[in-house]
Write a structure and sequence with these properties.
Length: 229
């Protein structure tokens, strides 16, 4: 049974505010996207990678990736305006039995975490990486007043990859097209069709590079990793 990875990389990077799309910003001298792809290229259980990009970035990315020789990147396809649309496009090109969906801008997930996730998804059909939240989380209303404080012991911070059986995630994405609200992660779509999602231990270092501070943090995480190896 094969494992494929869909990597949405078609975002605008508005919160990063850089001229260059944030997946092309450099981390230790190489584009963030290259670090992310290498994680999956070198994982023994991954068979194929589908990359989703903005139309105008596809040609340049193909040329860039040629020099890295990533043999598992089977297609680079055009994304949509929303992350959910980009993932949906990618899913149409991924034929694997098990599909992991991973943000292009999370370059630090480890092979150990991938092993845990793949093991669990093959049992449960829907599994996500997550870590317990460290802060107290409040719910607020549109006027900025606190409305409640959910118990922290019941809250997690969700990461990617998220893994699913192909049939299940395709069905969930198709169904979600009927809903006018965009989901901020893929497991939400699984919840919406009433299927249980299993949580697998993630890693605090598996950050999503979203704002300029995250880039500084990413360089630090990279340095620490280099010392540990
Ligand atoms: N229409 C979109 C929006 C997002 N993504 C991808 O989804 C991942 C997570 O999204 P996020 O970090 O929010 O990236 P952006 O949407 O680019 O950021 P912003 O919201 O600040 O514009 C990124 O790899 C991003 O490229 C995508 O493929 N297509
Ligand atoms: C999918 C995700 O990375 C899980 O944390 C996240 O929800 C994506 O968030 P975005 O900032 O809305 O793209």
């Amino acid at each position: 049974m094969s494992v494929g990875v869909v990597i949405p990389a078609a975002g605008q990077g508005k919160r990063m505010g850089s001229k260059v799309s944030k997946q092309f910003l450099l981390l230790d001298g190489q584009p963030i996207l290259v670090h992310t792809l290498r994680l999956f290229e070198t994982h023994p259980q991954v068979d194929e990678i589908i990359l989703v990009m903005k139309k105008e970035e596809i040609r340049g990315t193909e040329e860039m990736l040629r020099s890295y020789g990533f043999a598992k990147v089977k297609a680079i396809v055009e994304g949509g305006k929303e992350r959910q649309e980009s993932v949906h496009m990618g899913l149409q090109h991924c034929q694997s039995d098990w599909i992991l969906i991973h943000d292009a801008v999370r370059p630090f997930v480890t092979h150990e975490a991938l092993d845990r996730l793949i093991r669990e998804v093959k049992v449960t059909k829907a599994a996500i990486l997550a870590v317990p939240v460290k802060d107290t989380i409040k719910q607020i209303n549109s006027e900025g007043w606190v409305t409640s404080t959910p118990a922290r012991s019941e809250l997690i911070s969700v990461q990617t990859p998220q893994g699913f059986s192909r049939d299940l995630i395709v069905q969930a994405h198709e169904k979600a097209l009927e809903d006018p609200n965009w989901a901020t992660d893929d497991s939400m779509l699984i919840e919406q069709i009433g299927f249980p999602v299993k949580v697998v231990e993630g890693e605090y270092n598996n950050i999503k590079i979203t704002t300029p501070e995250d880039l500084v943090l990413a360089e630090k995480i990279w340095e620490i990793r280099r010392v540990e190896v």
